[in-house]
């Protein structure tokens, strides 16, 4: 396979989003496997790209800085990307599976005719062939997608949280300023404003230690005991869906297919059975420790360490040990 791996770098209000670092990390790994170059594409307002250090993660950065492009506009980003793809003929284009990426990637695919696989959770190179891994039926099955003809290139949108940001050595990549296409039409849509969706007091996607509460906690009143454990351990509280559905914790704590994908170094699952919709959200976690009084609970199949016990007995024992 020849041609660069192209990563579309997403910025919001001047700062590069976490998913772009994850894409760059994965792209670095693929580039090392295929011995190809990593090119990042950045579109943003003037003097914005140096405010983040993403450019150290690529061999080359194509930078389009223009006051008109401060806020994302799918039509502009599409036309810029299509121009680059036609000229550079990359082997692969990676875009975050974010609201913007979901808008942008199909628009690029439609204009270029390149095959597209969306919401991928992994990209593998096997026998020189690219295989995208996608979840089906809410994470119960994993499908491997191959393209009939990948010689012209392909596009993937990748689910945020699928890859960790690994420590590839920084380098000073080549910075290549590019111009907006001359015939860029006036877009039919325009950015109006950001509306805060209430991200919540904590961002569970950034936590290194998650203390996660399941229905096994039994009642809302006992959640405080687990919150105290999280405080002592220096972790952040997350939860399964029933805990949200019952109104015990706000939605932004929820892990899983209809919640958030997380990638803590340690995930402590307390009273969580391990339904696939939940487990799909912790694919990127480091060490998983499960506490469940049912020793046959499915969570033990994905846990690195399992404790078959009452979660409050476990919590009290840890608190006691740490207070000594
Ligand atoms: C479309 C769809 C999307 C979904 N999305 C999500 C999602 O994003 N996230 C999510 O989590 N779920 C999601 N679900 C729900 C999912 O299928 C499960 O129902 C849910 O994950 C179960 O949550 P739980 O493990 O907390 O509860 P349960 O399955 O009820 O498990 C509770 C566990 O606690 C244990 N337990 C009970 N008491 C104690 C105790 N004192 N000490 C120790 N262990 C104890 C029990 O043995 C049991 O294993 C989704 C479902 C659907 C249909």
If you had to describe this structure to a student in words, what would you say it looks like?
This protein has a nine-stranded mixed beta sheet with strand order 9-8-7-10-6-1-4-5-11. Strands 13-12-14-15-16 form a five-stranded parallel beta sheet. Helix 2 packs across helix 3 and helix 4 packs parallel to helix 8. Helices cover 26% and strands 25% of the residues. The protein contains eight helices and 16 strands. It is elongated and about 65 Å long. The chain folds into two domains: 173 residues, HUPs (Rossmann fold, 3-Layer(aba) Sandwich), CATH 3.40.50; 120 residues, 3-Layer(aba) Sandwich (Rossmann fold). With 324 residues, it is of the alpha/beta class. It binds flavin-adenine dinucleotide. The site of flavin-adenine dinucleotide has 27 residues, from helix 5 and helix 6. Flavin-adenine dinucleotide binds next to helix 5 and helix 6.
CATH architecture of the largest domain: 3-Layer(aba) Sandwich
Number of strands: 16
Shape: elongated
CATH fold descriptor of the largest domain: Rossmann fold
| Distinct small molecules bound, one entry per kind | flavin-adenine dinucleotide
- SS summary, helix count: 8
List the helices and strands and how they pair.
Blueprint: E1 5-9, E2 11-12, E3 15-16, H1 18-34, E4 38-44, E5 60-65, H2 74-88, E6 92-96, H3 99-112, E7 116-126, E8 129-136, E9 141-145, E10 154-158, E11 174-177, E12 209-213, H4 223-233, E13 236-239, H5 241-245, E14 266-270, H6 276-279, E15 287-291, H7 299-302, E16 305-307, H8 311-323
Parallel strand pairs: 1-4, 1-6, 4-5, 5-11, 6-10, 7-10, 12-13, 12-14, 14-15, 15-16
Antiparallel strand pairs: 2-3, 7-8, 8-9
Helix pairs in contact: 2-3, 4-8
The protein binds flavin-adenine dinucleotide.
Flavin-adenine dinucleotide (FAD) binds next to helix 5 and helix 6.
């Amino acid at each position: 396979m020849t041609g660069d791996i192209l990563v579309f770098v997403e910025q919001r209000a001047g700062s590069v989003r976490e998913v772009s670092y994850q894409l760059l990390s994965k792209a670095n790994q693929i580039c090392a496997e295929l011995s190809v170059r990593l090119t990042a594409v950045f579109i943003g307002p003037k003097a914005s790209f140096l405010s983040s250090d993403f450019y150290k993660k690529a061999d080359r950065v194509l930078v389009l800085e223009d006051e008109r492009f401060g806020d994302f506009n799918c039509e502009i980003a599409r036309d810029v990307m299509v121009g680059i793809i036609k000229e550079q003929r990359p082997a692969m284009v990676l875009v975050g599976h974010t609201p913007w990426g979901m808008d942008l990637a199909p628009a690029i695919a439609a204009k270029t005719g390149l095959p597209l696989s969306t919401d991928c959770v992994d990209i593998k190179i096997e026998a020189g062939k690219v295989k995208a891994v996608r979840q089906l039926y809410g994470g119960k099955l994993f499908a491997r997608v191959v393209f009939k003809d990948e010689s012209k290139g392909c596009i993937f949108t990748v689910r945020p949280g699928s890859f960790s940001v690994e420590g590839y050595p920084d380098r000073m990549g080549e910075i290549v300023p590019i111009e907006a296409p001359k015939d860029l039409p006036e877009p039919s849509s325009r950015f109006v404003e950001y509306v805060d969706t209430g991200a919540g007091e904590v961002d569970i996607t950034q936590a290194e230690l998650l203390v996660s509460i399941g229905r096994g906690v039994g009642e809302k009143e006992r959640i405080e005991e687990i919150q105290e454990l999280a405080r002592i351990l220096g972790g952040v509280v997350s939860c399964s869906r029933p805990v949200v559905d019952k109104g015990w914790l706000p939605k932004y704590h929820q892990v899983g297919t209809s919640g958030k994908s997380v990638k803590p170094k340690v995930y402590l699952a307390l009273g969580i059975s391990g339904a696939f919709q939940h487990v799909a959200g912790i694919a990127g976690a480091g060490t998983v420790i499960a506490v469940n009084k049912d020793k046959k609970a499915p969570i033990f199949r994905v846990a690195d360490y399992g404790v078959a016990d009452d979660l409050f007995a476990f919590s009290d024992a840890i608190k006691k040990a740490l207070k000594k």
